[in-house]
Amino acid sequence: MRSLQEAVRPTTIIEAPRLSKRLGADVVIASETFQLTGSFKFRAAYNVAINVPHPRIIAASSGNFGQALAYACQLTGKRCTVVMPHNSAAVKVAAVRDYGATVDLINTHEISRSARVQQLARESGEAYIASAYDDPLVIAGNSSLGDELLTLGRGFDRIVVPVGGGGLLGGILQSFARAGNKTAIVGAEPALANDAARSIAQGELIVNEHEPQTIADGARTVSLGHHNWAIIRDHVSGILEVPEEQIREGVRQLFTLANLKVEPTGALTIGALLAQPEQFRGKAICCVVSGGNVDPGVYRECLID
Amino acid sequence: MRSLQEAVRPTTIIEAPRLSKRLGADVVIASETFQLTGSFKFRAAYNVAINVPHPRIIAASSGNFGQALAYACQLTGKRCTVVMPHNSAAVKVAAVRDYGATVDLINTHEISRSARVQQLARESGEAYIASAYDDPLVIAGNSSLGDELLTLGRGFDRIVVPVGGGGLLGGILQSFARAGNKTAIVGAEPALANDAARSIAQGELIVNEHEPQTIADGARTVSLGHHNWAIIRDHVSGILEVPEEQIREGVRQLFTLANLKVEPTGALTIGALLAQPEQFRGKAICCVVSGGNVDPGVYRECLID
Fold this sequence. Notes:
Chain A is α/β, with parallel strands linked by helices. In chain A, 44% of the residues lie in helices and 17% in strands.
């Protein structure tokens, strides 16, 4: 079986002189849009698949983690079931099936996703239940992106990372802490889903009352994971809140000035530079773009100025 | 001054398992969308800029070559004037200016592009007039992409390359011929602009009567360049004609299944696989994607199924 380092596609480094000029900063993009399955989640999913002994893995995900886990299990010869709401977009269900997993469609008014996952696990008895973000194996998998950024050997003034459940930010912080590297690493989260910013401000893990309805659907999490929170609390240099309009503008600018197709969650980092330009002016910034999977309809709407 | 090999960004190799599954072939994409200035044209433009002694370069281009030449001149300390029709899209004029060139806007009803270029050259007396495709320096610059494909060391059954003026196809053929490599290399051109296919069929260079109005605007050329024709005639394994609908579908499939934003001309190669799937089934195919610069409005329309 291939190791994590052998299996993942190295992140795609894109220098974007026109985008840099527009943003008034020296911006380098680390894009996970061409990672296997189209987002950084493959790093986490593959690390889970190769490290748990179970022949079957179950997860609830209507997004990138489901696709990533399906493909990771296909590559490692494990069975995989992904629980999705029955009203999920057809393209998302098709993507998970394309990667070889069983899709278990549920009516979330009748049973919660986590209850259904537990039910399936009890029926099978030999399955690992994978969390999309709150699992040390997930964080360790994502830390491989941090390791790649370290080996670039570039002196970034700041690295900006999208935040949803905090798995990617936690992984990159873990990697840099492990290496003793003190580069400032900040999170970028939707202002509509600012639980990470509030958690840092209050010094304790804050939970949103409802799933926030931001366009950045990868950040529609009610809180950071507990494992991630412990790392983020100790190592992050700040969390920036990005209004919806700057998320959309980030998608547009990456399209126009860097030829990069990104999902709204992936545009959070450019959105952070647009929302708070004074924090970045003249600095060398690495913007992590977490993924590229987005419905054509949502994308078309983002392109309208 | 940096050499061509030092200055260009290596092409981006993207393996796309979902796209391969859909197309029934083992497809690897060599994408020039993240090349400096967003298309392969930078290879040609930079090679011109470093090889001519003139302190100033003039060209007529409303497309990718104008941006590429502007940036190549900026990097090499040369002055650059790009002649563009006065009704060019504002974003294209802005892009050329962003890269530091002087834009000379003309009314094409009053003076032709080439006449204006000649006029400017006479006024200046020390300028090189650059062709976007019909120039040995351009072909040699583009051959650097062929050299990169050779160093991949992968056994492609076929390499598919977009064809407009033939500069890119000529360059890649030149590179493979130079190396004595016999891999089949085919061109993909719009059916609406099939002068290359007709030229091959008739054994002589055929010229379109009008500029063909294909959505693939990089292929709106009236004929192959003479230098390119000589190479293509001797070495190409075939020219495939791609209907407009398959060009659009190529843009959509690259969006959906490979997270790649491409311009219609860049989608010609995937369009060729969609148009003639029986030629490619089960084979290992390298599809060259020539560039990614496309107006948001055109792109949004392509995404509609």
